[in-house]
Design goal:
mainly alpha; 10 helices; single chain
C-alpha cells in the first residue's frame, strides 16, 4: 500500500466524518469511520517532513490552505464565520513547524520539550481542530520514526490510547484502527505529480464548501 492509497483512504474517511457531523450528527457510524482520517494525515505529514525537498514551501502550502479553508470550514460546521474553532490545516502546519524547530535545534541546546509544549499550547489557544491532541499525535509519529515498524506502531498506539482516554470521548479510540492500515504502507509514495498533489489539498475546502451549500448555509 503506497502513500497515494493512504491519502485516498484519509480523504475518503474524512469526508464521511464531515458528512456525518454536518448532516447526521446523531449517527455515530460516520464519526467512527472518520476517526481513521486524522492519524493517517499525521503519519503522512511526518512522511512529507522527512522526504520533502523544501520544508519551507511545504509549510507555506499548508498555511495557505489553512487560510483558504477557514471560511468553508466555518460555514459548513457553524453556518457563518466562527473564530472559536479553526480548521485542521492549522494543526498540521503547527505540527510541521514543531518538527522543523526540533530538528534545527538539535545541534545546540535541546529545546525539544519546550517546542513541543509551545506547539501544543499554540494549537490549544488558537482552538485548531484536534488542538493539543493533534500535536501529540503528530509528534508521536515523528519521534518513533526510526523504530522498527511494529515497535513504532505499538508506541504510537499507546500514546494515542492514553491521550484519548485522558482527554476525549470513547469514540476517538476508533482512531487506533488507522494503525493497521499504516502497517501495510510499503514506504513508496505512489504516483506523484503537481495536479494530483493539489487535488488532495483542494479537496478539503471544496467538499466543505459543497456541504455548506447543501446544508443551506451558503446561498446565491
Amino acid at each position: 500500500m503506497n502513500g497515494l492509497i493512504l491519502k485516498i483512504i484519509a480523504l475518503s474517511t474524512m469526508i464521511i466524518d464531515h458528512y456525518g457531523a454536518i448532516f447526521q450528527p446523531s449517527e455515530m457510524t460516520f464519526r467512527m469511520i472518520g476517526r481513521l482520517a486524522f492519524p493517517l494525515y499525521c503519519f503522512l505529514l511526518v512522511e512529507g517532513f522527512i522526504h520533502t525537498k523544501d520544508i519551507k514551501k511545504y509549510g507555506l502550502r499548508l498555511l495557505a490552505f489553512a487560510i483558504i479553508s477557514e471560511i468553508p470550514f466555518d460555514y459548513a460546521f457553524y453556518g457563518g464565520l466562527h473564530w472559536e474553532h479553526q480548521n485542521i490545516f492549522f494543526t498540521l502546519f503547527i505540527g510541521l513547524a514543531a518538527m522543523y524547530l526540533i530538528e534545527n535545534n538539535k545541534a545546540t541546546v535541546n529545546n525539544a520539550p519546550l517546542i513541543a509544549i509551545g506547539a501544543a499550547a499554540t494549537a490549544t489557544l488558537l482552538a485548531t481542530d484536534y488542538n493539543f491532541i493533534g500535536i501529540i499525535y503528530i509528534l508521536s509519529f515523528y519521534y518513533s520514526r526510526n523504530l522498527p515498524i511494529m515497535r513504532r506502531m505499538s508506541v504510537v498506539a499507546a500514546v494515542i490510547f492514553v491521550t484519548n482516554y485522558l482527554s476525549t470521548g470513547w469514540i476517538q479510540q476508533y482512531s487506533l484502527l488507522a494503525l493497521p492500515i499504516i502497517l501495510m504502507y510499503n514506504n513508496k509514495p505512489g504516483p506523484k505529480n503537481k495536479p494530483l498533489q493539489y487535488i488532495f489539498y483542494w479537496a478539503y475546502p471544496l467538499h466543505l464548501f459543497i456541504f455548506a451549500i447543501i446544508k443551506g448555509n451558503i446561498t446565491f
